[in-house]
Amino acid sequence: MKIWVLRHGEAVPHGSKIDSERELTEHGRNEVLRSAAHLVGQPLTAIYASPYVRAQQTAQIVREALGFEPEIRTVEWLTPESDPDKVAEQLVSVSNVLLVSHNPLVGNLLSYLQHGAGHPSEKVSTAGLAELEHSELLIGSMKLNSLKHP
Prior knowledge:
By secondary structure, the chain is of the alpha/beta class.
């Protein structure tokens, strides 16, 4: 079982729009394209994304870059302040999925899946892409195969 976790690309600054409506910058779009290149040939079965505009845009760029046919699955449990434990509950019956989300959730989720509760958050830049793997979803036992920053 593999799980890829992608933080959205660079977005327009806070203050210019409501947080959930912030869009990717041109730089952010280019970051996402560079990260998407690492997913070419991977056995993705689904793309799950936060409903926030910048995450939706990120997921769509990846989907188009990969020629991935299934629709993006928009889920509320991938918003910035979501609880990593609640995300893990959603992942019990899936494998080989891409999650497109935000910090602090991305960093917290990566730490939680690798080490369990109470460990410091992973540092993940915009469009940072992590690959986790294990034979099954076991909190605190997932192996971080890679964490790539564009």
